[in-house]
Amino acid sequence: MNARTTPSPPHAATPAPPGRPTNDPGRALLTITQRPDTVFVDGRGSWLVDEQGKRHLDLVQGWAVNSLGHSPAVITHALAVQAQRLLNPGPAYYNRPMIDLAERLADLTCFDRVFLASSGAEANEGAVKLARRWGSRKRGGAHEIIGFEHGFHGRTLAMMSASGKPGWSSLYPPMPAGFAKARFNDIGSVERAISPHSVAVMIELVQGEAGVVPADPGFVRELRALTAEKGLLLIVDEVQTGIGRCGRGFAYELYGVEPDVMTLAKGLGGGLPLAAMLCKEHLNCFEPGDQGGTFCGNPLMAAVGLAVVNEVCRTDFLEGVRARAQQLSIALQAIVRDHALVAERGAGLLRALVLPDDRADRVVAAARDLQPVGLLLNAPRGHLLRLMPALTISEAEIDEAMRLLRRALGDANGASGTGMPT
What we know:
By secondary structure, the chain is α/β, with parallel strands linked by helices. 35% of the residues lie in helices and 17% in strands. The strands form four sheets. It has a seven-stranded mixed beta sheet with strand order 4-12-11-10-7-5-6, sandwiched between helices. Strands 1-2-3-15 form a four-stranded mixed beta sheet.
C-alpha cells in the first residue's frame, strides 16, 4: 500500500468528548475561550477568508497584532530571506538581525538598551525583573510595582497580579505578591499607593482591555513628575499602543514625557511572536544569567520586526495612520448620534464604541454573520466594542466597515427588541 492510500491514523477518528458536538472544529483543543465555528484559511490586508469562501473585513487584526494587515509582502519577504540564512543560533550568541533591530529601536526612541522577547507578557515580566534588580541595588531592596485598576499586562501569574482586571486576583491562588493598585487618571491615588517598598509605576497609556481608555495628558505629566521626585521608575506598557497604533511611533510621544522603561509586542512582529523591553542606560543592571529565553532575539523574528519598524515608522506612513484615524473617529461619532449610543473614544487606530447597555456580544455576532460579507469586531466588555484595524486599512475599507457596522447594530437591536433607530 503506497503513501497516498495509507489509512488515517487512529487519532483522526477520535470521537468528540461527552457534551461536545462532533462537528466542533476545535474538539481536540483545550478550551480557553469561546470561538465561533468559523475556520479561517486565508488573509490579505484587511480581509480574512473562511473555509466556506466567505470574506470578512477584519477590524480586530489579531488584537492589534497585524499592524500591516494579513500576510503583507514586507513580512513574507523578510521571512523567506531570513529563513534561508539563519533561524536561531541561540541567545548566547549575537546575530545580525538582533543587533540591527535593537539599534533601530534605540534610534527611534528615548531608550538606550533593548531586550528582545516573544510576547507582551514576557516583555512586561522582563520590565518587572529589571525594576526589582535595580531596586535591590539602588533602593535598598525596594520591589513593589504600582499598577492601575482595570489595567492589563499579560496572562502569566506575575502579570495577572500586576494587572487590575476584575476577578483575576482570586483566579489562581496564591498569586504573586508585590503589586499595588492605584486608580487610573487619579494622581492622589498613586501618591497614597507609594510605600518604602515601591520601586516603579507601570501604566498603559491607553487601557486597551478596559475599553480603550486613554490616560489624561495632565495626569501622565504629573505621574512622570511624581515618580522622578520619589525616585521611582516609570514603566509604560506599549504592547498594544506602540509601533504606530496611536498615530505616532510610540504613544509616549503623544504625552511629551520620557519613561524609564517601555515594553512592546503585538504590532512589533506584525503577526508573528515578537516583543521588546527597552530601558535607559542607567538601568542596564542585569548580570549574565539574570534574564534570558531560548527564543529571545532569534534572527527570524528580529528580521521581521526590523522590516515592520522600518515600514511603520516612516513619516509618510504615520501621516496616513493619522488620516485614517480621523476618518474612523468622525464616522464612529456619526454612528453614535444615529444609533443613540454613548460615545466613541480612543487614540489613532485603537478606538472603542461605548454602548448604552450590554449588547456588545450580540453586535459582534451580528457583524460576523452578515451576508455576503462579514465584519470582525471585539467586545472587551459587555457595553464596549473595540476596533483595531490594520494600520494599512484604506479609506474605502473604512467606509465599508462603517456601513457593515451600521447593519450589525440594526440587526442586534432588532434581535433584542429595543426598537433603536437603525
